[in-house]
């Protein structure tokens, strides 16, 4: 239409232009909707799975390692609830009035034990080059979703704050993932290794049955969480570093546990591979999960927008992005529980109880508790 | 004659209803200014702000309601001593004025009188109904019997109406009376902020011979505090602590715990999600426009703004033995505050945040001991802050700055060189029986009463309400502001005060990191 035209030709072109414009607008709208739909359904495709992961349900999970053996008791043992009552360490009853079920107060030596566990864990993990952090416990719900959790929905684990788009975190993994979201990191900055303390809040909606007793399943608890951001080629290495750290921690505390390579049906959507550690809980008479270490590869980073720019310029192939800069890639993220206080407390109380009703404090924790070696029954 | 009486009885409820709705329509003063009032306090907003519970009475009441739908049945009732209020009304009125409270004493007194009268009327009618019932047991002529049956029915109907009215009246009375603030210790200065008295001053401002940084700059330069990432993840006034700051927080809490335990305080950790009724019973305001309280979606639960709340709740609706008192707790928790309505310069960095760690002391004791424990608590706080080498002053807060529950409140303000002014780092309140009357915490004295009537169970002395006190042992972000700003050095490092070093693996200095 920029050229010289006869008026009838011009009119025809104007008409054609208008029609094209209208069609375009409609098609572009359709394209946007289609992309949204595509995104919506595609986002529910779970991460790929490591080839060594056993295929199947719970019973298919493979035991990678077993440490220690169940302690033999020559006296009738108590579960942690009974020990908690007898030693005046845990109060569920008052909390039920004040807050509801699955809430509790820790008292006396149990408070010192929680602090010792967290302090000791921090000092051990820092030695491996992890940076200590404390995190917000209220986050925007979009961050929760980007990490692969489900803030809304019937059986959501997530507490929402009234009148806002904010939620309470169920794990420090969430605010940790959020730190570097929508960022491009330098390759030289990787790996980033964090150990973060936070309180965690979970609705435990839909959790029923025997696995809810006492401290085993609660709405609020303290946890130390490890989080790694690394290059894709390094995530397998760090997955093994994380599980090694966990196994060392629990071995030092004298626990009897097994490390499981979780089967495909037990992986959360973000996890490429997941190692769970289950420790022997004599009061329950069974093993209970005390930690979980997941390699999420690029599942979370694709949602959180965490990329890195490789240091070496590419030798071959087209250079995309800014002139002479290699293209950015998505990082891999991993997370692992260093210490989930209530579950650890179940293990320590139940495993270290004595016939006279006292509980021995494992040696590594004593310096972090002012030297206390024993939790003794109190005189009444 | 009985018909005449009936007519009178029928007339009474109408009068009462009209009367109470008239009271209802009586404009509550300062409804609109309440928000402004709490904002006026903002520039020196205490760490433990309570919106005056007067707003509970004021904001919920629509102006044009009749008594029928005026007040929702309350979930709980404070045990208010109405008789005492009536017998001491001058003192109560002066106290309300001194505190700039919106409580309406006249309404309370009027409702109380009406309630008493209505109660008498109800009792009278009950007695009459009993008489009628008695008469009907004897031998009567059928016309007489019919008349008595009729009379009985009328009495019953009137009674039902009156009893309903009595319930409503009691609810109304309760509702307005609950906003009456606690009485005030005679030594408390009367007036606003500027009237608070300095009880003690420790140390003096450090003199710097180099340009100093505020805690935000130190936090950035030493890679200790990250507000920027938190703003993306959570919103403003949230933060991550990093590196030595994490160790410093843990050292502060560990050290504080060990110091306070030596004074006989029992360590606790508490739930941080509580039922909203507990929040109210402690004198806070979960709902309302400028509420400090986060509520959980789809439940009647809230996040705590201080461990004082779950601590008050531990022994609620209980009768303690006198021998169990005093109960002394030191509790750690995270605290969550909306800080709605907080504006101005006093919001920078760690000074005002939505989430923080705090160690809180809580005492439950006999009434005669609360003054002693108030002094014990403030002494503990002063010793802690002196040990850390802080320069601070202890203030006896003036009447207009007391929250509704506090009989007396001591605040400690420490020198924050980065701000160039003092900032509140702790608050110690003696709430006497204000909270215990709402939480239902009583004790049974050990000694049987020598004289006077014995009430309650046979031979047991009557229960009394305990007194409760609360005091901040360590509010981590405020302490961090003080330590970072006061202990900074010219080379950009920060010295760790000696008492904290053993709790931080011996670290003496936070040094700038190599980049």
UniProtKB/TrEMBL annotation, chain A:
Q: Which GO terms describe its molecular function?
A: ligase activity
User: What Pfam families does this protein map onto?
Assistant: Seryl_tRNA_N, tRNA-synt_2b
InterPro entries, alphabetized: aa-tRNA-synt_IIb, aa-tRNA-synth_II, aa-tRNA-synth_II/BPL/LPL, Ser-tRNA-ligase_type_1, Ser-tRNA-synth_1_N, SerRS_core, tRNA-bd_arm
For this entry, the protein name equals: serine--tRNA ligase
Coiled-coil residue windows: 10-44
Q: Enumerate the CDD domains for this protein.
A: SerRS_core (cd00770)
Ranges for domain Aminoacyl-transfer RNA synthetases class-II family profile: 79-362
Record keywords: Aminoacyl-tRNA synthetase, ATP-binding, Coiled coil, Ligase, Nucleotide-binding, Protein biosynthesis
Instruction: Give the Enzyme Commission number.
Output: 6.1.1.11
Please give the organism: Camelina sativa
For the keyword ATP-binding, the answer is yes
TrEMBL record, chain B:
Query: Which keywords appear in this protein's UniProt record, sorted alphabetically?
Result: Aminoacyl-tRNA synthetase, ATP-binding, Coiled coil, Ligase, Nucleotide-binding, Protein biosynthesis
User: Which residue range or ranges hold the Aminoacyl-transfer RNA synthetases class-II family profile domain?
Assistant: 214-497
Pfam families referenced in this protein's UniProt entry, alphabetically: Seryl_tRNA_N, tRNA-synt_2b
Q: Does the keyword Chaperone apply?
A: no
Q: Which residues form a coiled coil?
A: 108-179
Q: What is its EC number?
A: 6.1.1.11
User: A GO molecular-function term, please?
Assistant: ligase activity
- Does ATP-binding show up as a keyword for this record? yes
What Gene3D superfamilies would the database entry show?
A: Bira Bifunctional Protein, Domain 2, Serine-tRNA synthetase, tRNA binding domain
The name on file for this protein is serine--tRNA ligase
Gene symbol here is LOC104770644
